């Protein structure tokens, strides 16, 4: 390192890896009936939606900016410029929500 401070370097994702934002929904939530569910409540394996920030060259079906559904158990955290992101594999993604998908389930976020 030089006396000018740390040098900024571009990040390139490799293989089938995705860089995604940390979901903000990991706290308290409200059930449809209006009951408040605390963040400490044990629930069955709950999948989470998050936005894709960057993709590796081997990723085939997901684009930057897509919302993806993944299991919080299948993740690795990394800190970049004081922000926390997650690294996932494309095969760990359960669903993609984006404007460009023509044939889907008929469900929308």
Structure description:
With 109 residues, the chain is an all-beta fold. It contains no helices and eight strands.
What keywords describe this structure?
six-stranded antiparallel sheet; 109 residues; 8 strands; mainly beta; 0% helix; single chain
Specify the number of helices. 0
Write down the Rg. Answer: 17 Å
- Helicity, as a percent range: under 10%
- How many beta-strand runs? 8
The backbone outline, from C-alpha atoms, is globular
For the biggest β-sheet, the strand order reads 6-7-1-4-5-8
State the separation between the terminal residues, measured CA to CA.
Answer: 46 Å
Largest pleated sheet: 6 strands, antiparallel
Explain the layout of strands and helices:
Elements (H helix, E strand, L loop, with lengths): L16 E5 L7 E2 L5 E2 L10 E8 L11 E4 L5 E5 L2 E7 L3 E5 L12
Antiparallel strand pairs: 1-4, 1-7, 2-3, 4-5, 5-8, 6-7
Structure summary:
The chain is built from no helices and eight strands. The chain is mostly beta strands.
């Amino acid at each position: 390192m030089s006396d000018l401070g740390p040098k900024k370097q571009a990040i390139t994702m490799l293989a089938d890896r995705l860089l995604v934002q940390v979901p903000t929904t990991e706290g308290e939530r409200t059930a449809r009936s209006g009951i408040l569910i605390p963040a400490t409540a044990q629930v069955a394996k709950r999948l989470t939606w998050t936005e894709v920030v960057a993709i590796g060259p081997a990723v085939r079906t997901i684009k930057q900016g897509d919302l993806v559904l993944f299991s919080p158990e299948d993740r690795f955290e990394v800190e970049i410029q004081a922000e926390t992101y997650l690294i996932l594999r494309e095969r760990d993604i359960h669903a993609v929500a984006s404007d460009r998908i023509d044939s889907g389930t008929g469900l929308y976020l």
